[in-house]
Amino acid sequence: MTIKTPGLDTRVTHCGRAPAQHFGAVNTPVYRASTILFPNLAALEAKESARLRYGRRGTPTTHALEDAICALEGSDRALVAPSGVNAISTVLMAFAEPGAHFLVTDSSYGPTRKFCEHTLRKFGIETTYYDPTLGAGIESLIRPETRLIWMESPGSQTFEVQDVAAITEAARRHGITTVIDNTWSGGYFFQPITQGVDISIQAGTKYISGHSDLMLGTIACQAPVYERLRETYLRFGVCVGADDAYLALRGLRTMGVRMRHHHSSGIRVANWLAEQPEVLQVLHPALPSHPGHALWKQYFTGASGLFGFVMKPVDHDALARMFDGFTLFGMGSSWGGFESLIVPSNPAVYRTATTWAPGGQTVRLHIGLEDPEDLIDELRKGLDRLRP
C-alpha cells in the first residue's frame, strides 16, 4: 500500500509537536535550562550520546524547532541560530580554510558579502562574485580550490532568480558544497534541498516568525554536511533561547495562511504598480514581464510579499514627500511580518560582478496582511505627492 506524504500545510501544523511527551500540551513547552541532571553515574558518563546534555546544546524546545525546520525544508538535519546573519557566518566559517575559494552571487544579502570581504579575507579565503543569471555557466568560474558556491534566489534587493539545479549540478561534478539563502520563500514556496542543494539557510526572523518580534536563523542541511556544520556551530557557542524557539514554532503554525495572503496581495499590488506612469519597472518574479519569470515558475510554488520597483528619476525632496506621508507602510529594516514596509534602496553599492543601473530610484516593498486595496490607495496618494 502506498503511504501518502502529508502536504506542506499539514507538516507545518504538526511538525515539532509531541503532546504525549508533554502531558498532552498541544505546543511543546518552553524549556529554559542550562544544567541537565543525570539520574546516575552511568548516565552521566554516557552523556556524549544523549540528545539532552547541556542547555547550550539544545533543549526540548529548540530540538522541536529543529525537527520542524527539517519538515518545512525537506532536509535531513537542521540547526537554529540567534539571527539570520549568525546562520550565514556559521555556514561560511564551516567551510573556511586557508587558500579556499568561494563563489558568491552578486545579488547576495549585504552582510553575507561583508563577512566574505572583512572576515574571510583575513583567513586567506578568496571570494569571487558571479552574475546571478549565470546558471550552468558558473562552471567556468570553478577552480581546484573552490569549496563553496553561495546562491540567493531571488536576490533580496534586485530579485534575480537563479537556475538552482544547473548550478548545483555543476557543483556536484566538482565535489563542491552548495548553499542557498532561502529567506524570500520562507521555505514554504521553495524547498531547494529537494533540488540537490546541500544547505538552505533562512533568516527565521522573517516569514517563520511572521510577527516582527523575533531574531532567528535556520540552517537546514543534508546529512553528509551536518557534522561539519555542527562542529563549527558548537565551537562558536551558538545557541537559541527557548522563548525564541517557542515563538518560532508558534509562527510556523500559521505560515500557510500568511504566505498565501502575502502571495496574492503582493501580486495585486505589483500589477497595479506596473500600470503607473511614475514607475519604470516592477521587480517581481511572479510577473510575466520579469526576466526570471520562467525560472520562478520552474522552482517556486508561490511568491512572498517582498519585491521592488524602479521609479522614474525624482529629486530627494519629492521622494521625502512621498515616503513621509505613508501611514500603513512603515519604514524600517527587515520584512516578513504582518505589516507592510517600504524603503528606498541602492543595490549598486553591493555590486561588483554586475552593474545595477535601472535608470531611476529603486524601492523595496514588503506587502503584509492588510487589505491590498488599502495599500494600493496609500501608494496612489504617495505617487500623487511626488508632484510639487
**Approximate helicity band:** 25-40%
With strands numbered from the N-terminus, the spatial order across the biggest sheet is 1-7-6-5-4-2-3
Gyration radius, in Å = 22 Å
CATH architecture of the largest domain: 3-Layer(aba) Sandwich
Q: What characteristic shape results from the CA principal axes? A: globular
- Overall residue-averaged pLDDT value: 95
| Low-confidence runs | none
Q: Output the number of helix runs.
A: 12
Largest sheet: 7 strands, mixed
CATH class categorisation of the largest domain: Alpha Beta
The SSE order reads HHHEHEHEEHEEEHHHEHEHEEH
- Number of beta strands: 11
Total individual domains = 2
Structural class: alpha/beta
Strand content: 15-25%
CATH superfamily of the largest domain: Type I PLP-dependent aspartate aminotransferase-like (Major domain)
CATH names the topology of the largest domain as Aspartate Aminotransferase, domain 2
Distance between the termini: 70 Å
